[in-house]
Design a protein that fits this description.
Layout (H helix, E strand, L loop, with lengths): L27 H12 L8 H16 L14 E4 L5 E6 L12 H13 L4 E9 L5 E9 L1
Antiparallel strand pairs: 1-2, 2-4, 3-4
């Protein structure tokens, strides 16, 4: 037998990248496909993607601050209510009579009703509407017809 061939040393080689950008972990087309499926709600019920979408929607609904939505309708500040025959009742928002002393509420309520309904009723009394904590929630003004 002849001389034995030399034993090959295991080669430890490392590939050195000359590119400055790292290889993307997720393919671009796969990311677009996943995003399209999220937008079109294309996941089966019970999958983790479906659960993530539901969690995002619930988070938006419950965690979005109310001040971001300014399109909430507000009721009129002065409203005419049905009352007993011969009398008219008006509900007046609390901010309209805030700071007005009790003696001046009739005159202010009369002016508010006149400007809102273009009538000139005689306000006979104005009562505060209080909640359980004694916060003013509005005023009731009573007038004669």
């Amino acid at each position: 037998m002849g001389p034995e061939p030399p034993i090959a040393e295991p080669l430890l080689s490392a590939t050195v990248s000359t590119s400055s950008t790292p290889a993307p972990a997720v393919c671009y087309s796969e990311a677009v496909s996943t995003l399209t499926r999220f937008v079109l709600w294309d996941f089966k019920r019970g999958s983790w993607q479906y659960d993530v979408m539901c969690a995002l929607i619930l988070g938006f609904v419950f965690l979005t601050p109310q001040y971001l939505f300014h399109d909430q309708p507000r009721p009129a500040n002065v409203q005419m209510l049905s009352g007993e025959p011969g009398t008219i009742s008006f509900w007046i928002a609390p901010e309209l009579l805030a700071g007005v002393p009790a003696e001046g509420r009739k005159a202010k309520a009369s002016a508010l009703v006149s400007s809102r309904f273009k009538t000139h009723p005689t306000i006979t009394r104005v009562e505060q509407i209080l909640d359980e904590e004694n916060d003013v929630k509005g005023y009731m003004a009573y007038a004669r017809q």
